[in-house]
Amino acid sequence: QGNTDLLLALIKSVEDRLNVTTDTRLGRVPVIILVEDDPLFTSVLVPLLYREIVLQTQRVMEESINEEHRLLRMRARPKLLTAETFEEAQRLYREFTPHVLCIISDVRFPKDGVMDPGAGVSLLRMIRGERPDIALLNLSSDEKNRKAAREIPAVFLNKQSPDFLQGIRNFFTEYLGFGDFIFHRPDGEEVGRAHNLRALEKILPRIPDDALLHHASENDFSTWLMARAEIELADRIRPLRISDFSSAGEIKERMIHYLSKNRKDRQRGSVIEFSAEEFDPDSDFIKMGEGSLGGKARGLAFFSTLLRDASALKKTFPDINICIPKTLVITTDGFDLFMEGADLKKTVTGTIGDDAVKSAFLAAPFPETLKKNLEVFLSEVHYPLAVRSSSLLEDSQSQPFAGVYQTFMIPNAHKDLSVRLEELVASVKLVFASVFLRAARTFSENTLHRSEADKMGVIIQQVVGSRYGDAFYPAISGVAHSYNFYPVPPMKPEEGVACIALGLGKTVVEGFGGLRFSPKYPELLPGFSTVDDILKNAQNRFFALRQGEPYANTGIDDSGSVVTLSIEEARDHFPVSFLSSRYIPEEHRLRTSGGRAGYPVLTFANILKQKDFPLGNLLTHLLEIGRKGMGGAVEMEFALDFSSDFLSGFPSEGSKQPVFAVLQIRPAPQMHLLKKVGIEEKDLENAVCLSAMALGNGIFENIEDIVYVDPESFDPARTVEIAGQIGKLNRRIEKTGRKYMLIGPGRWGSADPWLGIPVKWEDICGAGIIIETASKKMRSTPSQGAHFFHNITARNISYITVRPDTDDHLNWEWLGALQEEGKTAFVRHVRAVPAPVIKIDGKTSRAVICAK
Hints:
Radius of gyration: 34 Å
Helix content: 25-40%
Largest sheet: 7 strands, mixed
């Protein structure tokens, strides 16, 4: 008959017959059975049925959340099986009974070896008696058979009718759930329709009770869901009966619960493509664009899938919401679109300063399509947002680029959507601009990358936390490593280490401080061993996101929206009161209970010592999941939030669960895998520097230049000025192409100038060895959480710590006697010729420097 669709239908028919047993067993796919003995009519009907099935599959695929989900739905399309006799049809029905979606049957075909003019009626009557919910379609060229079909009951179509094709389509739409779900009252009046599951979930509360009961009694919901390849959900709803519920309202609640849970479970661990028409604010991870997610977002998406599949984790911590924050990623093609339309090439390739680059990017036009999509996003999202970088180069195993690019925190609380939109667009532009700022350019040059070759994705992420007055912040933020470079007995390196702080994570990742502990031994706190140590080292200020009026607009940074608060002024906030102990001056002691007497001191005792929350155990599990998933050591940033319900044990139903959110995860440097360096007894005897806490591995004999902060002139109040002087010397030495040794007190790279020298990467990019010394004027614990720390270890810059009150030492007289190459008010540049021998054993964390 010249119907080319027949060839494809033949192929599909063979595929379905070969695959149906496996697909129904593993995937529970629906089955349509066609009973027809006339080859000519079968050749007309089978291509027609496949066309309707394919159209429905394409319609459903358009609702899919991503490519993987589209592929899954395509493979879960109904299988079409054909039979020519009563016995063959009965066998197929019996074999696939739980999966049969409908039976389409002729009236006259062979039964018991002879042609039976009523075989189709007998077959459909038998099936109707066993399965009242299966849709039945009776086909015949004889109009007299309509009455028998009505008595079964079954839908009847005359093969000779000019409307036969439309009749088939109507049957698929009305009885098999193909197309919209159309709500009717029992008298046929239409009262609503839903074109997808999200629309069905939204419309259900408004549907009249009589219409709902009408469709529930006919099993229309499970049939419609089955046709959309929502097989598991359909199987859950199909056994329910109206008699199981006390009212139509209870049926609605159960249906909405099932639909909502199904939607959220389907999205969990998946990267969902953004659609302005179908945007679901409950989605965990959405991508906007077709380009790359970038390194940071890629790691987060990967860990999201690991969490989805970690059933043992859910069983171990059933009362904690372990998740990633709700995340939207603008892929790198958004960056390309912006750069092409903004004409910023001359600006970014020049030598202008950072502020000028930011201003140029803020003034540049933003892609209109991207802006409209962000407007749709913001119209549904009203929580505070963190706008983070996710460049192609970021978070790789060899070159992490940690902290090199910018992050912006925005309140997202203005009443006017247009104001919130402009604030978000400005933040995205500034993250784009950070590719071309001095810090990124310098880091790229020192890692053999070209900054202009980098592309930037942008993560727009929900800020985890709660509001207290005009401040919004999480109870705890922190960084955890699966490998501890500085273990203190009985801790072991492979047991990991964490650093936590109250408030936003800026405290930890930018080097302001925090409390370090081993997740395996959270009660062992070397820096908090005495009351005096605790009072000296405890966090006394924290970062929070400003809320309320007057509204703080984002400029070239987020300094207007991020504020610092003291522990004392926030003593009435729940996290502060819960995580603090009380210092009683008269007794010179700290109490973890006993009311409001005394001063609040942030000790985290209820979490680490009393173990009211299993933070250490949870971190151990998550780090192990990350280590196995990424094939090596990992670093994880996280935030923890809980409400006052938490005090009475874990929250009851309806209360707020504690939330543990993984904000970022990346591969960590693995220096412990390097070969052992032999440090001999004679090395110890001739050492001008000795340390039992060193990072790095190898023997270095070519570093002659040494830049050090003069301990005699050092002033803790002028560390910012000292950082600038080091930067100048760094640039001077860098021109010679030589590496140098950098020595100074406190924590290098600390954002808090009272904890160390607040150098940026560009200030010390020529250093090959960095030594952290002790000073009576400044004492601080080493940080394994800061971005600065991560970048220097990943670039194999050795980091040596000379601790007080140990066998560690540094010979200052030897340094003072070396040839002086340059000097500032606080810093000396000297040269040791011949170069000293530097040995660092990454296995034992020991280091020795011997002068020749």
